[in-house]
Structures are given as C-alpha cells and as structure tokens.
Amino acid sequence: MKHVEITVRVRYQETDQMGFVYYSNYLVYFEMGRIEYLRNLGLPYSELEKESIFLAVVESHCKYRSPARFDDLLIIKTWLSKMKNASVEFCYEIRRRDEENLIAEGSTILACLDENRRPRTIPDKIKTAVKGSGLNT
Hints:
The structure is a single chain. The chain contains 3 helices and 5 strands; from the N terminus they run βααββββα. It is an alpha+beta fold. The chain has a single domain (4-132), classed as Roll (Thiol Ester Dehydrase, Chain A), CATH 3.10.129.10. Strands 1-3-4-5-2 form a 5-stranded antiparallel sheet. The chain is elongated and about 45 Å long.
C-alpha cells in the first residue's frame, strides 16, 4: 500500500457564505485520510493511543487550487512521504470524484509523543507496518 483514497461528501455545514468549503475543513479532510491510512496499515489510531503512542501535528500546509462546494464527492488521497526518528510526514491530494484537477494539496508533519507528551522514537510496530506497505523511507 503506497497510498489510501477515501471518499467524502461535502456537508452543508462545511461551507461558507460563498458556498465554498471553508478553508480549515481541508485540514479535517487531511486528518480523515491520515486516520484511514493508519487503519489500513493495521494501526488504528485508537489502539495506538491505548499503547501511549500519540502523533501530534506540529506543522501543516495546504495549497488551495479550486473551491469545493456543498454535495461534491471528494477523493482524498493520502500517503506517508517521510519517516524520521521521531516524526512522520503525510501528503494529501483532494479532487472531485471522476476529475483530474486538484482542489487542494498539502502535507502534515506529526511528532511521535509518549504518555507524558514528550517526544519519543517511532515504535518498531509502526516502522514494521510502514515497511511492509512498500514505502521506502
């Protein structure tokens, strides 16, 4: 697995007065993609937290290319682009279903934290799952 794609329908409450998806909702879409990516690796985030493994967003970027609107079906493509000793970087692309044009693209960097919310190395179970997915980090 090199990437995961999920489909999201834009809800009315996610739009602004102009009828466009409000900019901060793209970060929510990124999170939805990231959670599914981890789940597809066999690493549900709820299980990681039970093991005192926390992934905290420390940096995010989003480039808006074209507005999404209420009721659009969006495809959120997510992949892990980089893994360092104590952090991971995810990348994202958002398109309307059956269209090639990008609506938004971006990335997030997440730090791995322990139960005291202090940085820790990425656990072996995550490294193994990522390596088994075909990603070369």
